[in-house]
User: Fold these one by one.
Assistant:
Number 1:
Amino acid sequence: MRALLVDPAAPGSLRLGEADDPRPSAHQVLVRVAAVSLNSGEVKRGLSTAEPGTVLGWDAAGVVERAAADGTGPAVGTPVVTLGAQGAWAELRAVDVDLIGVVPQGADPGAVSTVPVAGASALRALDRLGPVLGRRIVVTGATGGVGRFAVQLARRGGAHVIACTGDPDSHGPSLTSLGAHEVVTDPGRIDGLVDGIVDTVGGRQLVDGFARLTQGGTVVHIGRAAPGPVSFPDGAFAGAPAGHDRALVTFYLLGCHGLGRDLTVLAGMVAAGELEPSIAWRGPWDDAASAVEALLDRRLHGKAVLDLR
């Protein structure tokens, strides 16, 4: 099969080449991939650490070519969206049936390919916050893939959404159109206390956000766009009255149960136009180097999608 292979000598450290077809286990289906979306984490870390010839990729959408041998999962010919630790950037992908969402017939594979990491991370982060109806919810890194899904889902849940972006003048209108009630540069600029934070940035924003939590508030930290160590002030986690019952939590997406259900629901919402996938770059997979360069240069505010042609 053809695949995008890690090659440090190639533009973007990727080249189109030949790789062995995957061999699905009994609990896996074989998917014919139509489109993939890129994530900054896999691009920044994966391309610099993977062995040459590796097929990377977390997110892919396509059609089931071979059903799981154990009889579970979707049937041959079913449109699906898939999640995994690697192997998405290829014509064929073997993926666990627990990490597959069923996609409505006729849906754009490129649009639904944005769902797995970004959409599921946003949904699971909001799940950690509990019911958001009527609550003040902050999303840091709101112009990124996770952030844009989190803004939309929080608004649909009835939250008062405060989006954080480094350039509110440029990105405020688009974030407002996605559902944000307020757009600020960082949590330190927020007036009053907040009930929950979906943090995709880390660094100073994580520290300032935690300081603005109300009693019973939670920060869900799921990203480290700001490199370097994080230092909380002395007493930040003390059980004093001002800091009573605040929480800082994290999670590992692939360790979550029930992701297939999440992927199915989110893909259906994207297909129905209820969620905007916010595709900032789209092109054929033989131009992957351009997408990688744009992601590394932080020029994309949204998702990058490659169509396999």
Number 2:
Amino acid sequence: MSLIEAQGLVKRFGDFTAVDGIDVRVEAGEAFGFLGPNGAGKSSTMRMVGCVSPPTDGQLRIFGMDPVRDGPAIRSRLGVCPQQDSLDLELTCLENLTVYARYFGIPRKVARERARELLDFVQLGDRADSPVEPLSGGMKRRLVIARALINEPEIVLLDEPTTGLDPQARHLVWERLFRLKQRGVTLVLTTHYMDEAEQLCDRLVVMDAGKIVAEDAPRALIERYSTREVVELRFGLDGLDTYADKLAGVGERLEVLPDRILLYAADGDDAVAQVHGRGLTPSSVLVRRSTLEDVFLHLTGRTLVD
């Protein structure tokens, strides 16, 4: 049995359809990601999975149970790391965890022991008695993750777990989440960081306008929707459309951006040789491997969505 299974899942707010008939299956022990631009329906989906927003239509089962009928039983087995930290700034790190544990009926002594173990796990053991307010953003984020684990959940829901963190803090959070996955905890996350999705997710879906437009492992998505390499060409301040016409047929696909031209090719060096062979001299050339971000932008577009 899948831990999370949705079929034809719909969420409407009045006349607006936020989630439009999606099918999702999350297996035990995997890290599953939702990617998509703002307004794609990721957070609405997560709120339905978290049993705080009832589906408008379709079927949703978590642990084989109905989130509308069995919400309390499901929530007792979930850990939730919201996008906003929502910590109690008046309490210490230890108190934030032990007070939260009481919502799950965890005895006080057990809560304190578990809280100290979790603070050590997120490398905040020396801050147990420190107030929350002066902590750095990375420390607060790690504390929220520790709080989400206080009830020893089988599924942890993480909404943008590393938004606003510096690279060092992000990598530390990734390491902690990877260790959770090694312990058999199922992770479900939304993220805007493509490298984060590649690092953490076994499988993911790309959502756009409330629908799922692609689903697979990160590397499989790259192989399906992009090429092995991408060549970025810059031609100074000259108009790029003229150069694009001269590059027709080089590589498998060409994309003109305001400041550069992207050539998608199986062999980037061979594509560069063809560019020079046509008498073109770019001001700069970069050959890189194709990434999940290339897939994301190809599927959802480069236009901002408000």
